[in-house]
């Protein structure tokens, strides 16, 4: 099993320096203010953690990240959104063009978890029906202040039939996995029937992939 | 804000008109120590000379300026407000909070807190209730409260329904100056919510808690309030440009022109908070206040922009208070110093503007502008010694028609924070006296143990100059003349004399 | 620990002078406050923090003077109020009869978005006194006819019911808040650059 995991992992490698790409996708990170959207992105893009005081995102931040999927260069155009109420309508406006949405809540903030339902309602209303949606419970390192149990997140995700994982921008737990899995899914979805002819690739299932790859933090609640 | 010149109304600005230095200064030169009185209010001032704007030479420092009108009812209430600010047994208001020199409060007309510079605004809800009650009492008498002066404290009110802005200051600012500060605070709030949205909400929901729409914006307001205490741009209502060779600035402007696209109103390049160049649609001007609000937002958020590209709705009140422009903000260097801002009327234009940015950067690189900008910034502002007038220690020079100012970096004796703050206070004081609406002055000259100060308002400019205390009047007059020539000679470098259009 | 957003509620206390509004506030807010403003402005202002349904609520309490001469300042006081507490003295029937006009006055001056649902609470004060005149039944009956206003009886010596009264007020006000939706499209005003009226404010520089 491990060997296969290794093989899978090498197919998705990040941090390409060239700006040329074969295909690009728009990805948005959404969720209440303060759940850690920016930290997740900075962890993913730069491999660092934004420690210190909370600095709220102003408006929308945009960054490109190149990853390699099955030997192809994939450009992820990632929107980091401000979770504040006044940007809600503009955020909805951007949903239309997003191929994937990462919906983040904070495991130490029950309200942010309660609001997941509202976010999903907005996604259903404004995003494309085929959008790839991933639910993320962030700050899994803060086990002592945990307010939302792992299984609660899991259950809610199951209810909506979406992929779920817990991450920690601080330790890096599952951060790369979240984005890389999304990249793989988007890439696969973009392949036409003709591309798949003659391919011996196993069919990729986002949920199975994530479920098998994700690590649990020590105190899962 | 009234009386505010736009950044550049149309294309070229002709050189400032020649100033008859001698005649304006005749009164000053002819005054001697016997005529001019020392200022009883301020014993440190040895000599003070005023020349009023209508040229009446007034030597007496006790100008009869109109005092606050007395009104029994109002004064009774104002005593109450003062008492609230000074009482000991109000446990919410700690003594250190009360001792702050400058407070700014924003509340709704229902009395709900929106912002407080110091302290947590919802702990101040009782105080804000009193403020609204006072506003209402005066309103009931078909009047609008503007200010209350109580001892060394000034309470200044700016009513911009549905908002009420109140400043409480025990510093040296005049009421007029404080009002201008409140306008900046107001404009910053409008930049986030827009006037039409604000009015729309409060027309039906008088109990709306505006903080819901302002979450995360405390940093803009805090940064603004701190800047207003020390940055001449808010005192002079003018922006500072990065000193840059004229032809290089033109290259920057031409690079910005490359970004021309539908619905793009303005393109601005800023470095370390100083304007480098602006390109605009012919029919539109970027008002000074709007530009300052925009720059404050960028400077207050620099750390959140994370070297990516940002997209932010912003309402520029002077441009159009009813709608939002959308700002594409990105930094062109690792150190997050040089910032490129596009202002578009199209909220879906982000990716188009990303492409525009590439064109701009390509042209900037072609002319090596970024290196020039970096060099201009890193060699720091010019020092006053460059002017070559040893007795001149510092100055602020504002050119009125294009609303820009220049000043050298601080050097001895203003080389530490305390002295700089003191000097800024002196500039504020001079500015306050010169611009007193009741008795505007043309010239103000005062000598103290520490320095000699001269403030001069002419039709094209304002000058605030600081000299050694030993300078004679004739030396000062001659120095001013030389300084003005020096500035004129370099105006192409010190100011953005022209903005290009798309 | 409260996890939701902070909420600030403007609460107006109305009722004839002498019914004991101030003593009640004294009890409830539990802070030493000096009522120095009432005589001049017409209200004292108090602030009380509480936790309601896991949310931190700050009540900005406007304890009014209850005298006629301040009624001209009604709009300022009542504007933007989230809830209203009506107080009468159980030993003084006149103070009960005026509740109707206080309530009407409030609804006129405050002009709330949804008058039917604006939270009111009635407090019958001074039940510790022996010469009670207004009966519980009568008061409760009146409250029932006014959209079921919650009714509490208390005395200045006993503040347990006062606490409950305010908890109820806050709860009902919060329910109102949940219904308030931000406008669906915050950016409906698109600027048309071609027609944007923006003449330079000062003279042309050339």
TrEMBL record, chain A:
Entry-linked Pfam families: Ras
Residue spans crossing the bilayer: none
Keywords: GTP-binding, Lipoprotein, Nucleotide-binding, Prenylation
SMART domains cross-referenced by the UniProt entry: ARF, RAB, RAN, RAS, RHO
Location relative to the cell: Membrane
Membrane topology: Lipid-anchor
PANTHER family: LD44762P (PTHR47980)
Protein family per UniProt: Belongs to the small GTPase superfamily. Rab family.
Name of the featured protein: Uncharacterized protein
Lineage: Eukaryota, Metazoa, Chordata, Tunicata, Ascidiacea
Automatic annotation (TrEMBL), chain B:
Domain FUZ/MON1/HPS1 third Longin: 391-491
One Pfam family of this chain: Fuz_longin_3
InterPro entries per UniProt: FUZ/MON1/HPS1_longin_1, FUZ/MON1/HPS1_longin_2, FUZ/MON1/HPS1_longin_3, Mon1
Biased segments, Polar residues type: 7-18
Domain FUZ/MON1/HPS1 second Longin: 263-361
Composition bias type Low complexity, residue spans: 27-42
Region: Disordered, residue numbers: 1-44
Domain of life (superkingdom): Eukaryota
Domain FUZ/MON1/HPS1 first Longin per the UniProt entry, residue ranges: 103-224
Family of the protein in this entry: Belongs to the MON1/SAND family.
Role of this protein: Plays an important role in membrane trafficking through the secretory apparatus.
Name recorded for this polypeptide: Vacuolar fusion protein MON1 homolog
Automatic annotation (TrEMBL), chain C:
Xref: InterPro entries: P-loop_NTPase, Small_GTP-bd, Small_GTPase
Keyword Cell inner membrane attributed: no
Keywords of the record: GTP-binding, Nucleotide-binding
Pfam families: Ras
UniProt family annotation: Belongs to the small GTPase superfamily. Rab family.
Protein name in the entry: Ras-related protein Rab-7a
Species, as recorded: Clavelina lepadiformis (Light-bulb sea squirt)
């Amino acid at each position: 099993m491990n060997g296969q995991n290794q093989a899978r992992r090498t197919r998705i490698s990040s941090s390409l320096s060239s700006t040329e790409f074969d295909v690009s996708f728009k990805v948005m990170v959404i969720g209440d203010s303060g759940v850690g959207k920016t930290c997740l992105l900075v962890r993913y893009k730069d491999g660092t953690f934004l420690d210190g005081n909370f600095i709220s995102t102003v408006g929308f931040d945009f960054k490109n990240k190149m990853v390699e999927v099955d030997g192809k260069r994939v450009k992820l155009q990632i929107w980091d959104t401000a979770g504040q109420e006044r940007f809600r309508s503009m955020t909805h406006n951007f949903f239309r063009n997003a191929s994937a949405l990462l919906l983040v809540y904070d495991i130490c903030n029950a309200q942010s978890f309660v609001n997941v339902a509202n976010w999903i309602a907005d996604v259903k209303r404004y995003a494309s029906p085929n959008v790839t949606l991933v639910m993320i419970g962030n700050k899994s390192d803060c086990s002592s202040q945990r307010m939302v149990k792992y299984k609660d997140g899991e259950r809610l995700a199951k209810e909506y039939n979406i992929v779920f994982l817990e991450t920690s921008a601080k330790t890096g737990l599952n951060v790369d996995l979240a984005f890389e899995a999304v990249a793989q899914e988007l890439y696969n979805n973009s392949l036409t029937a003709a591309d798949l002819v003659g391919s011996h690739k196993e069919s990729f299932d986002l949920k199975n992939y994530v479920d098998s790859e994700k690590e649990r933090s020590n105190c899962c609640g | 804000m009234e009386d505010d010149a736009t950044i550049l109304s149309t294309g070229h600005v002709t050189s400032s008109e020649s100033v008859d230095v001698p005649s304006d200064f005749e009164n000053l030169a002819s005054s001697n120590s016997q005529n001019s009185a020392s200022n009883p209010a301020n014993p440190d001032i040895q000599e003070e000379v005023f020349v009023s704007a209508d040229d009446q030479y007034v030597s007496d420092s006790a100008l009869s300026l109109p005092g606050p009108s007395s009104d029994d009812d109002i004064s009774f209430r104002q005593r109450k407000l003062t008492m609230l600010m000074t009482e000991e047994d109000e446990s919410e208001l700690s003594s250190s909070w009360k001792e702050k020199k400058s407070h700014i409060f924003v509340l709704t007309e229902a009395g709900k807190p929106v912002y407080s510079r110091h302290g947590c605004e919802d702990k101040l809800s009782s105080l804000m209730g009193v403020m609204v009650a006072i506003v209402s009492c005066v309103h009931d008498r078909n009047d609008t409260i503007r200010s209350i002066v109580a001892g060394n404290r000034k309470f200044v009110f700016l009513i911009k329904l549905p908002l009420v802005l109140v400043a409480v200051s025990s510093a040296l600012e005049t009421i007029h100056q404080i009002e201008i500060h409140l306008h900046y605070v107001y404009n910053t709030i409008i930049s986030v919510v827009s006037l039409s949205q604000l009015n729309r909400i409060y027309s039906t929901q008088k109990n709306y808690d505006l903080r819901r729409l302002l979450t995360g914006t405390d940093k803009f307001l805090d940064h603004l309030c701190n800047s207003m205490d020390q940055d001449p741009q808010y005192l002079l209502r003018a922006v500072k440009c990065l000193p840059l060779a004229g032809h290089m600035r033109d290259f920057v402007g031409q690079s910005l022109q490359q970004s021309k696209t539908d619905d793009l109103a303005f393109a601005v390049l800023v470095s370390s908070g100083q304007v480098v160049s602006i390109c605009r649609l012919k029919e539109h001007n970027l008002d000074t206040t709007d530009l300052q609000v925009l720059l404050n937002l960028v400077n207050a958020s620099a750390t959140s922009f994370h070297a990516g590209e940002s997209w932010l709705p912003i309402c520029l009140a002077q441009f159009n208070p009813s709608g939002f422009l959308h700002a594409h903000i990105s930094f062109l260097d690792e150190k997050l110093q040089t910032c490129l801002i596009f202002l578009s009327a199209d909220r879906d234009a982000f990716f188009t503007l990303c492409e525009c940015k590439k064109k701009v950067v390509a042209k900037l690189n072609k002319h090596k502008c970024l290196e020039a900008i970096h060099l201009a910034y890193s060699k720091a502002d010019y020092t006053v010694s460059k002017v070559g007038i040893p007795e001149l220690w510092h100055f602020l020079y504002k050119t009125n028609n294009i609303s820009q100012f220049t000043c050298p970096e601080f050097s001895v004796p203003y080389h530490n924070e305390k002295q700089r703050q003191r000097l800024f206070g002196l500039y504020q004081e001079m500015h306050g006296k010169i611009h007193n609406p009741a008795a505007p002055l043309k010239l103000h000259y005062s000598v103290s143990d520490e320095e000699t100060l001269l403030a001069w308002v002419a039709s094209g400019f304002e000058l605030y100059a600081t000299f050694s205390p030993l300078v004679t009047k004739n030396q000062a007059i001659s120095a001013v003349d030389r300084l003005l020539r020096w500035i004129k000679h370099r105006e192409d470098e010190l100011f953005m004399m022209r903005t290009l259009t798309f | 620990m409260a996890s939701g957003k902070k909420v600030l509620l403007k609460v107006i206390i109305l009722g004839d002078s002498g019914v004991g509004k101030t003593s009640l506030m004294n009890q409830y807010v539990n802070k030493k406050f000096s009522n120095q403003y009432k005589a001049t402005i017409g209200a004292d202002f108090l602030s009380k923090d509480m936790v309601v349904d896991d949310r931190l609520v700050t009540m900005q309490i406007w304890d009014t003077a209850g005298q006629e001469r301040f009624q001209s300042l009604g709009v300022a006081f009542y504007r933007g109020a989230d809830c209203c507490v009506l107080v009468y003295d159980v030993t003084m029937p006149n103070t009960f009869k005026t509740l109707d006009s206080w309530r009407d006055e409030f609804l006129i001056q405050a002009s709330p978005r949804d008058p039917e649902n604006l939270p009111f609470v009635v407090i019958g004060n001074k039940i510790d006194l022996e010469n009670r005149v207004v009966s519980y039944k009568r008061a409760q009956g009146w409250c029932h006819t006014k959209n079921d206003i919650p009714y509490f009886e208390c005395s200045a010596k006993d503040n347990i019911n006062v606490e409950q009264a305010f908890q109820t007020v806050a709860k009902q006000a919060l329910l109102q808040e949940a219904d308030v939706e931000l406008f669906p499209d915050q950016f409906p005003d698109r600027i048309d650059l071609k027609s944007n009226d923006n003449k330079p404010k000062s003279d042309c520089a050339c």
